[in-house]
Prior knowledge:
The complex is a heterodimer.
Chain A: H1 8-40, H2 45-60, H3 63-82, H4 94-119, H5 123-131, H6 136-166, H7 178-189, H8 192-224
Chain B: H1 10-47, H2 50-65, H3 68-78, H4 89-95, H5 98-124, H6 127-135, H7 140-155, H8 157-171, H9 184-192, H10 197-225
Amino acid sequence: MEVVAxxxxxxxxxxxLTLGLSAASFPISAFLGLIVAFAAVSPSRPxxxxxxxxxxxxxxxxxxxxxxxxxxxxxxxxxMLAQPFGIQIGGTNPAIAALIALSIQFGSYAAVIFKDWMxxxxxxxxxxxxxxxMTRLQIRRRIVVPxxxxxxxxxxxNLFLVMLKISALASLIGVEELSxxxxxxxxxxxxxxxxYLIAAGMYLVISAVSGFVQHRxxxxxxxxx
Amino acid sequence: xxxxxxxxxxxxxxxVLNGLGVTAxxxxxxxxxxxxxxxxxxxxxxxGGPGVRMGAKIYIFVFRGVPLLILLYLFYYGLPRVTxxxxxxxxxxxxxSPFRTAVFVLTINNAAYLGEMIRGGLxxxxxxxxxxxxxxxxxxxxxFFRVHAPLALRSILGxxxxxxxxxxxxxxITSVITVRDLMGGPTVLGKVYLDPLxxxxxxxxxxxxxxxxxxxxxxxVGRRLSHPGTVQAHHV
Lengths: 225, 236
């Protein structure tokens, strides 16, 4: 324990990045999910098809592959784009690659959640909106989206907890979040058992705190109805 | 930069084929062992006293809350440092091989999810059916194996499909402890050929197909087993 004590500030930085990565990419995922869900139920066939393809593609792709694909892929694309101009690009920032990968992947998961809730959305609400002369866009923005967000809150909360854990994979492309800092500390102290146990504990604390906040949020939402 | 030379080597396709087998083995083994462990956890939660229930709850909280990557590192890099484990049965059976470590870690992780799922299934069986079974004189164990468990199993069938999909995807992470599964084998070759992208694209496509197939099978089995008016109806 004494061996790893000096590293705690480094560790906390990693934990902060884990939380920050998920906190930054989750709203993007939710927004993306909402758009895709609307596309999936839209009468336009190409839009519905594109949405179904997106959802099924990321339902099947392991997160670890998506992270690597975005990281290596963007590196290669950027290099190819820069070549004709004779510029050297240092490569994609791993944190940004991880952010994009997580957002796209979890956008598809969020889309499934929203789509499921749209399936049970009461017709009466949208009809009421039509009756008082709201446009389709107004109905979506002022009736459907707020109610959808409210009913999907528990599922979205769980999705956030999943994202916190999956974001550990960002360590594999060099993002210095909690898992990566743990590996570094484990390497330099040669105490892998202690270090990974501490990391496990930190993830549990982060999950527990997020779960608690989520619970409070849900209770507050219930009351606001 | 982006050439597909690796696709013309037989070594690559052998790695893919081999990896498919390893991924299938990882998934099937950790689903079977995970289901048994999960069943025990669910029974602890459902039938046990407060202490036993607490134990099951803590297990589920811990193994659902810690990322799989950390669990893999913990068992692969961390545990071999515990000297008194050396020579034990657990050491010889699990820690001596990355594959068996991967199966073990996927199992304990999967059991936490399956435990919650099975508990939900057990709860969904209407109490009246169990009382009816007791009324005709069935013993407790008999009720469990002949009435409660089968009905619970049927109600969680759809969820078992998505759990299998989750395990297939999660098993790709075991490549970080040198398991040569569908992800690990071909991407290691990609490093040799200085082409990380092509193996990822090929393997990613195969995962998508596998998951669609599992979906298809789940739907087919689900349709066959769901009769109107049975427990399935409660599964809304």
